[in-house]
Recover the amino acids of this structure.
């Protein structure tokens, strides 16, 4: 799982949006998401470590999308591009909703003119450039051009 606590949806300063338009304690949500993704990733690693010895001849690698997205968040200049300043806290396609507004309503949405400068596409999903970076990193591992972001378990 990616570091969901850094997405606009689960950030401590989150706003009402398409995915959640009710009141909530955003700091509590952010902390819970950090705990959830950290624990979930640890459990997945343990499960794969347990099953790896039983799959004779298999090569099992755990791709660390959490670490990669966290690095993109911490050092956007290495990953994002575009002519606008890098933005790791906002969304290229952001929609602000009112309290308990119908999800059928369009909300107040804005589209950034330079989405490659944003880490997040919307309040929950990685942006276009982030997806390119993840795709290239996975391709590099598959073709053995890089061992970064991968832990081989067998």
């Amino acid at each position: 799982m990616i570091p969901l606590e850094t997405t606009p949806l689960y950030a401590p300063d989150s706003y009402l949006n398409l995915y959640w338009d009710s009141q909530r304690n955003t700091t509590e949500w952010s902390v819970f998401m950090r705990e959830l993704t950290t624990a979930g990733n640890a459990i997945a690693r343990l499960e794969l470590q347990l099953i790896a010895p039983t799959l004779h001849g298999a090569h099992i690698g755990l791709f660390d999308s959490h670490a990669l997205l966290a690095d993109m968040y911490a050092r956007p200049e290495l990953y994002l591009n575009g002519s606008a300043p890098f933005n790791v806290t906002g969304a290229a396609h952001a929609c602000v909703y009112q309290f308990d507004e119908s999800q059928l309503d369009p909300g107040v949405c804005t589209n950034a003119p330079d989405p490659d400068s944003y880490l997040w596409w919307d309040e929950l999903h990685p942006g276009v450039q982030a997806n390119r970076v993840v795709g290239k990193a996975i391709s590099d591992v598959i073709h053995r051009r890089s061992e970064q972001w991968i832990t081989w378990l067998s």
About this structure: The chain has a mean pLDDT of 96. The first strand starts at residue 61 and ends at 63. Helices lie at 26-51, 65-74, 128-142.
